[in-house]
Every structure is written in C-alpha cells, then in structure tokens.
Automatic annotation (TrEMBL):
InterPro entries xrefs: T2SS_GspF_dom (IPR018076)
Keyword Transmembrane: yes
Keyword list, A-Z: Cell membrane, Membrane, Transmembrane, Transmembrane helix
Compartment list: Cell membrane
Protein name according to UniProt: Type II secretion system protein GspF domain-containing protein
Membrane topology term: Multi-pass membrane protein
Superkingdom of the organism of origin: Bacteria
Regions crossing the membrane: 35-50, 85-108, 114-133, 264-284
C-alpha cells in the first residue's frame, strides 16, 4: 500500500522541482494560448522536459503526423507552437493519470484492480486525445467541403457579371452569411494577403497548403490555370468543378445522415431494455 503512495509523492515532488526550476521562462507562450488548452498550469514543467530531452527531435516521425494536423487546423505559422502545446497537454494528462492511479491504489490498500484500470486509462488517454484531434480535422474538412460549392457558384455568377477573379473572391468574403466558418476564415486571410499586394499565385498556393484538401487544391489550380485567360474558359472550368463539388457535398451529407442514424441506435436499445424491465418485472413478481 505504502509503495503506491510513495510513487505518487515522488512524481509530485519531481513535478514541483521542475516547475520551480523553470520559473517564468514560458509565461509569454502560456499567456498567448491560455484559453485554448486545459491543464495550462502544468505546461511550464512539461515544456522544460520536452526541450531538455529534445522529444520533438527524437520522435520527429511520430510528432510530424500531429504537426500536419495542426497545420490543417491552425496554419503554418503557429503549427509548431500548437504541436508543442499539444505534447505538453499529453504529458500533463499522463502525469495526472499516474499520480491519481497510485494515490487511489494506496487509498484502496493496494487493490490491483484499481491499479490496472488506472494504468490502462492513463495509457490509452493520449491515443484518445490524438483520435479527437483527427476527428476535429475531419469535421473541419467536411465543413469546408460543404461550403465550397456555394462559393464556387457565387464566383461563377460574379465573373459572369464582369468581375475579375480577385474582385469575386473579395465579394464572396464580404457577403458571406457565416464569416466564422472554416472556409470563410481561410478565404478572409487569403483576401487580406491579396490586399497586402502579395502575389496572387502565392496567396492561392498558401490557401491550398493550409487547407490540405484535394478539392481546395483543384479549386486553386483551376483558378491559377485560367484566371489570366478569363472569359468562357474560366467559367467552363469552374462549372465543371462546381458540379463535382455538389456531388461531393451530397455524399458528405448522406454520410453524416447515416452516422446520425447509427448514433440513435444505442439510446433506442437502452429505452427498449428499460421498457422491458418496467413491463416484465411486475409480471415476474406476480408469478
């Protein structure tokens, strides 16, 4: 029993020692992102461990997958910082999990069941967090794909009315119904770069890399190949793309509908079991 309590205390002392040594070294980073991540009070010690043991360099292949998701979610400029923050969050979760496991095991007088369950929970929690990150990335991509056909259709109408591609993009952003959607946020950044006189081809390439979606890459490539020609060639290419995007949107909507239906199955089963118990229990007591 006492060995588990000692282990919990040792982990706590090591964490406090590292926190004291770090001091205010990472305060600027924490202040910038304090509302985006839980367990921020533990991040300074975790940052120190990451830097001291060069974890991001030693496990580059594994961490690169996480960084790719961060690029998709937050862009190239802050992806590295978000990756480090996410690793600190993983580490903080594992530390709390180990401390809690050893502490509860000690309170339960060395119950091995609590120890095993706690260690399993601690081990699988980081994988669940990475899986949640993948889910967030997928949801963001689906939201972009659902909105992209409308943007392409609006651009076709504007270009057909005599607007240039750049002007059409600006009007798509300024007249957006939901300016806080993922696609509109990316297009707003793109328009801001255009207004800052950055090269148009570079701006669209940045948009393609940031989103990391095949359909966005096709959209930007179609514009870059045809916007200088203008006229019927550009409109024809955009109409073909619009048709493909609407079909993709139908597929995503159908998939989401099937997922929603499947999520209702479990509650319905629970309700059915509850009804069976309510109806069957009186009959069994009478018999």
């Amino acid at each position: 029993m006492y060995i588990y309590l000692i282990l919990a205390v040792v982990i706590l002392i090591l964490y406090l020692a590292v926190s004291i040594k770090v001091g205010d070294q990472y305060n600027l980073v924490l202040e910038t992102y304090k509302k985006q991540y839980p367990l921020m009070f533990m991040f300074p010690a975790c940052f120190y461990i990451i830097d001291k043991f060069k974890i991001m360099q030693r496990f580059y292949e594994q961490i690169a997958k996480i960084q790719q998701k961060m690029i998709s979610l937050y862009g190239n400029r802050t992806a590295l910082q978000h990756t480090k923050l996410f690793l600190a969050q993983l580490m903080a979760t594992v530390i709390i999990g180990l401390m809690g496991t050893f502490l509860f095991t000690a309170v339960a007088e060395g119950d091995t069941t609590i120890l095993v369950v706690g260690l399993i929970f601690t081990f699988f929690t980081p994988f669940a967090m990475i899986s949640k990150l993948s889910t967030q990335e997928k949801e963001r991509k689906d939201m972009i794909l659902l909105e992209l056909p409308e943007v392409v259709n609006k651009m076709i109408l504007l270009i057909n009315a005599g607007e240039t591609v750049q002007q059409a993009l600006v009007k798509c952003v300024t007249t957006a119904n939901n300016p806080n959607s993922p696609l509109m946020i990316e297009l707003t950044e793109t328009v801001n770069k255009m207004m800052s006189n950055e090269p148009f081809h570079q701006v669209l390439n940045d948009l393609s890399k940031k989103c990391g979606i095949r359909e966005i890459s096709i959209f930007t490539t179609t514009i870059l190949l045809n916007y200088r020609k203008g006229g019927s060639d550009l409109l024809l290419a955009l109409r073909e793309l619009s048709h493909e995007l609407w079909e993709k949107r139908k597929t995503i909507s159908k998939t989401k509908g099937e997922e929603a239906s499947s999520k209702l199955v479990f509650p319905l089963v629970l309700i059915f079991i509850a009804v069976m118990i309510i109806v069957g229990y009186p009959a069994l007591t009478i018999m």
